What we know:
CATH class of the largest domain: Alpha Beta
Radius of gyration: 19 Å
CATH topology of the largest domain: Beta-carbonic Anhydrase, Chain A
Strand content: 15-25%
Structural class: alpha/beta
Shape: globular
Oligomer: single chain
Strand order of the largest sheet: 2-1-3-4-5
Largest sheet: 5 strands, mixed
Bound molecules: zinc ion
Helix content: 40-55%
Number of strands: 5
Amino acid sequence: MSTGQDQLKELLQQNxxxxxxxxxxxxxxxxxxxxxxCLWIGCxxxxxxxxxxxxxxxGSLFEHRNIANVISSTDGNAMAVVEFSISLxxxxxxxxxxxxxxxxxxxxxxxxxxxxxxxxxxLHQWLVPTRKVYQENAKALEALDPRQRVLELGRLNxxxxxxxxxxxxxxxxxxxxxxxxxxxxxxFNMAQGLLEDLNxxxxxxx
Length: 206
Ligand SMILES: [Zn+2]
């Protein structure tokens, strides 16, 4: 049986193997700077690694990941990433990508007020925006079976993050200056391995 230390040792060993396989030209290009195709905002889930599921090399995606791909104007970390991507890197596209079987979204749904667990305090605080989306759509969501309910809340949660990015001063300034910027909502279907466009793109025209 492998121990935790063995597993971490494997990461270091695999890095050495990767260096042997990777193109020296790619490493040389990375050293010169980055010009990523997009800002990718996804869930921290270990099963949805963006460069793996999109088959992209290093340098392709500027990434921001958190529990349940939540974007909120009160999150200084996320806001700095959005500003950096738009204002410094000039990315033309931002993708907010949710996924099926998202434990973060499911957790936001089951939390009940008055049952706070101090060991999960920050997690529950983090999921407040997703819980708010649930409460705003409770009637429609509760008419669905439990599996569909999590899926639909996940979709609405992506839409809320897309809207939050569209409302940032950085996005508004880009559109006012004629800088191309599209903000997309996608979902990764874990069982199929496929990405789906949820057709909620903002391009500043509305
Ligand atoms: Zn997730």
